[in-house]
Amino acid sequence: MTFHVLISDPLSEEGIYPLRQANGVNIVMETDLTPEQLGERIEGFDALLVRSQTQVTRELIEKASNLKIIGRAGVGVDNIDLEAATEHGIIVVNAPDGNTNSAAEHTMAMLMSMARKIPQAFHALRNQNWDRKSYVGVELKNKTLGVVGFGRIGQEVAARAKGQRMNVIAYDPFLTAEKADKLGVDFGSVEDVLKVADFVTVHTPLLKETKHLINKEAFEIMKDGVQIINCARGGIIDENALYDAVKSGKVAGAALDVFEQEPMVDFRLLDLPEVIATPHLGASTFEAQESVAVDVSMDVVSYFTTGTVRNSVNLPSVPKEIMKKIEPYFDLSERLGAFLTDLTGVAAEEVNIRYAGDLANMEVGPLTRNMLKGLLKRHLGKQVNDVNAMYIANQKGIVVNEQKTTEAKGFTSLITVEVKTAKGTRKAAGTLMNGQGARIVKVDDYLVDVVPEGHLLFVRHNDRPGVIGRVGTLLGQENVNIATMQVGRSNAGGDAIMMLSIDRPAEAGSLEQLAKLEEIQGVTPINL
Ligand SMILES: NC(=O)C1=CN([C@@H]2O[C@H](COP(=O)(O)OP(=O)(O)OC[C@H]3O[C@@H](n4cnc5c(N)ncnc54)[C@H](O)[C@@H]3O)[C@@H](O)[C@H]2O)C=CC1
Ligand SMILES: O=C(O)C(=O)COP(=O)(O)O
């Protein structure tokens, strides 16, 4: 099988060597496509690798009928419609660490260039203007740097600013007093940060919540003469508000690497002498480009060869060691879901999954997603996979609960799935038998030992002599061979079940006849 990869933004050639080395990977690099051309080109590709230029819109995703994975060789994924990708079962991976240093160094370069007006002075000198009066700067020492967004890059910037003997105050929803203390920074609300900072730098992702986080009101509470840096994403700072704030003298300097529109079209801001800018170069170092390209390439190869990834943005990442332990349960989980869909015959309203025994100490999210895949696939077909299974379940209003317990009733590990539907509640439990593969060991309250594969018949009947024989005879007459048979009962003479595995699916007519037999309460075919 060949895995087709389209690279639509310039990626480091050294960085994509994991892809070049992998067997069965066909790489197409086309970095000058217009959105229309990309839309025409995308079909047939299994993977798309991008940086920040390519806009991976819903429209594009809808045209990408073979796409399985999108790799973002960088951090920000605001150019990718994550919701559309998840809906279409496409994994999105990024390279979260590879350009942290590069972006932090660029932020410091911008901070220093701005404080000492280096670009402006150089520009004047280039024009043969030896002007020493116009370019008097300010020192960083003892000034306060306000950092809004204290993740990987924000923290690296803070560490460097402390090296310049600056005071640092940060805001991040995840920053605690203890952590701030450990990192040697002050912390407060966004307002606290904006009020006291001489320099403000933003390092949040661009989200609905951070769009225009630095707006007219934010500039109003800042110190007069504040200087501001955006090496994160265009749109975090409202460019119109920044323009006005610079014009009014409130903001003495601005250093921008990123813009609301890229490639940038509004040059108004750049006409202001207080503003310096670079064309989104934060991650543009040889080291960072190699590193991010290696990271996404490795994830694409890993997806292609093992179905697992490290840095998924739309699926929680599971450490490799844990993945190894839970992987054997993927198939069992999916089969339990499919088994219950056939058993209930109607849509689930609520699904309760209990992980018992060894599984209680593991990350079981992937198992739940596989179970939901099995449960939903019957009605929704191939469009469901483990990336979008949870999303689709939520969309369909299915409540999903996970529970863990160390008590596994004699099994090393046991997965019990209870499905509530409009027609009642059904249950099945499964385990992995040592060396013998998956087994369903309980259906509703009956103990069984069934290999969950092939064609099964679940028969409910009254516990009376002769019922089993009549079922066997009728199936025999219909030329349906019974491979295995399990029986279970609640109490002698009460309700009982039969679980048959048969060599081929029984015809609808045979099932009807079975259901009509005396003492039979119901017959459900299950095809796994
Ligand atoms: N100019 C460039 O070339 C580059 C730009 N970036 C941008 O920098 C951003 C940050 O990158 P990392 O530090 O690696 O990400 P990160 O995920 O480590 O840090 C982002 C931090 O922002 C915080 N945050 C979210 N909403 C916030 C809010 N409303 N107020 C304050 N903090 C908030 C998060 O809690 C998180 O700690 C990326 O999302 C990307 O857009 C990243 C690399 C290069
Ligand atoms: O990693 C990020 O978020 C960046 O902004 C880097 O963008 P780029 O890959 O250089 O287009």
Question: What can you see in these coordinates?
Answer:
The protein has 528 residues and is an alpha/beta fold. The protein has 4 domains: 3-97 and 287-306, Rossmann fold; 100-277, 3-Layer(aba) Sandwich (Rossmann fold); 318-452, 2-Layer Sandwich (60s Ribosomal Protein L30, Chain: A), CATH 3.30.1330; 454-528, Alpha-Beta Plaits (2-Layer Sandwich), CATH 3.30.70.260. Helix content is 34%, strand content 25%. The protein has 18 helices and 22 strands. It has helices at residues 17-21, 35-41, 58-63, 82-87, 100-115, 118-126, 152-163, 177-183, 190-196, 216-221, 239-247, 286-306, 320-326, 328-344, 365-380, 389-395, 467-477, 508-516, and strands at 3-7, 25-29, 47-50, 69-72, 91-94, 144-148, 167-171, 186-187, 199-202, 226-230, 251-256, 275-277, 348-357, 399-405, 413-421, 424-433, 437-443, 446-450, 455-462, 482-489, 495-502, 520-527. The strands form 4 sheets. The protein has a 7-stranded parallel beta sheet with strand order 8-7-6-9-10-11-12, sandwiched between helices. It has a 6-stranded mixed beta sheet with strand order 14-13-15-16-17-18, with helices on one face. α5 (100-115) crosses α7 and α14 (328-344) crosses α15. The longest helix is centred in the middle third of the chain and has 21 residues, at 286-306. The radius of gyration is 31 Å and the shape is elongated. The two termini are 25 Å apart. 42% of the residues are buried. 2-oxo-3-(phosphonooxy)propanoic acid binds next to loops.
